[in-house]
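Schema walk-through. Below, the input block comes first and the output block second. Nothing else is stored per chain. Lengths vary across the set, and this one has 180 residues.
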Amino acid sequence: MKVLEHRFEHISQEGHRGRALLAGLLPLFEGALATEAVQPEDLFLRYHHLGAIVLAVERVPAALVTRSRERVRSQALDHLVVGACADGPVRIEAGAWVGEASSGDLILLDLAQPLRITMLPQAGIAIVVPRRLLAGTTEDEEEHFSHKKVRKPARAPARHGRRDPRAETGSLHTCFGYGQ
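--- output ---
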């Protein structure tokens, strides 16, 4: 397993840290930080290459992340992204479809389509899978694997008092090094 990790605590200037984080989104995505976004030192992007599948773990500031029509056309990627954000909300625009995901929701994105994701500061995890690995798994792949998906959990997570996303997803934070 190969791990590519972008950490930014060594970059003392907040603006430089934000630009370094945006550079780490390439080549899949382009990004822009929200003008009021704070780039704390514990930001990171971590990619675990597991053969044909990539596991991505991140802690990012408020940002706009896009896959432009030109990027989609030039890369010709036929991959799906299954992700979950710990901190929500995330607004996803894919063509005429618009959806919003909250903490605990599963998100399915199609990298063969342009998209725009607007998010608040996030901790998240995603799996990037080539569509060919899923071929033949359903009778109607277009319906099941379209980029227009946000799945809500069967029931809302229990919340006591003030919401602390780290407390709600403690196992993910512990397992993947959030807050370390």
